[in-house]
Amino acid sequence: MNVYKKFIILTLLIPLPFIAMLLILLYIYDPYMFYHKPYFREETYMSMRMVGKSIIDYYDFDSFILGTSMTGNTSSKEAENKLGGKWVNLSMDGSTLSERKVFLNYILKLKKKEIKEIIYSLDSFALNLNVNNDTKKFDFLYNNNENFFNGFRLYLNYKTILCALTYSSKEKCVGKKIEKIEDLPKWVDEFHNRFGFENWLKTYKKSNKKQLIDEILNTRAFFTQENIDISQNQELIQKDLLSFIKDYPQIQFRLIIPTNSRFLYRVERGSRGYYNKNFILFSKYKAVLKWLIEETSKYPNVKIYGFDDLDYADDLRNYRDEAHYNIDMNSMHLDAIKNNTHILTTQNMDRYFELMEQKIRAYNLEPLIQIIKKDSQEN
Length: 379
What we know:
Number of helices: 17
Strand order of the largest sheet: 2-1-3-4-5-6
Order of helices and strands: HHHEHEHEHHHHHHHEHHEHEHH
Distance between the termini: 81 Å
Number of domains: 2
């Protein structure tokens, strides 16, 4: 063997021990707990999309909550006390139906757990919009192949390698420490001083306050639209939700309609109202939900719960922004499931949505304008 060939072979072989050592280190460090619970450090958690697999694999439960930030504050402990069973909250902030389908496939189709009950949120943005349903950033963790090296697709990057080399326990490296697993999707404590319209304004820049008042002042009389095409929505819901309801008749599905504030529906635009042009949000949401209520009436293992006929959504002190309600609403969801109340059916849905529309139409924006003007003068 000539010198050149020896040099090439040595060049290729010398790095191999270092690569092997790095892979072993990443396996031991394992910040997403993809392979095991932590060694030599406390349990910490990152994004639910990434660590959901470890929670599903390592924790004992027979029922779960799967939604967005709207169900993030639902206490699994409270669910156990009111509904029985062993619960865990797997809610993902801003999750689409397709993202949640990844979890449903992993738990149900791969038979990771024997499930009795599922609480699932029917968020307006997830049902209404042509949202980005790309799940490629995390769905490989939950595939059928059980490829041992899947986790390293997360770890072979400069940031994670640097964290592993220093075995860092910083939040940016391994996520946050929580007292109880049920607190992972919980956000209410972090935003406790943000509830109420006056407190919303504190997060707005001066230019944004001016824009907000202009948008409120220019809001027209509320109107609804009929004959809306929801065929794409139906196809998405059939594929990502109803298919599971049909295939698992032994599981009780509790579908929750999140109670957004009247303000969200009443203003055409706003920090979240970019999808409410010409008040399309309520009209389309209503059309989709009515279809879904009719469709699920065929299946005895599903109930849909709505709370928009209450006065709760009129009071912005109950909200941290236009959409997100306080934790007391999450408790009301559990009470309704326990007591069989607030259930929407084909018999009562028309009256329900009529009352909801009346409350949106009657919502008075003038007090909010005065609050903004006063705030602008003081600041």
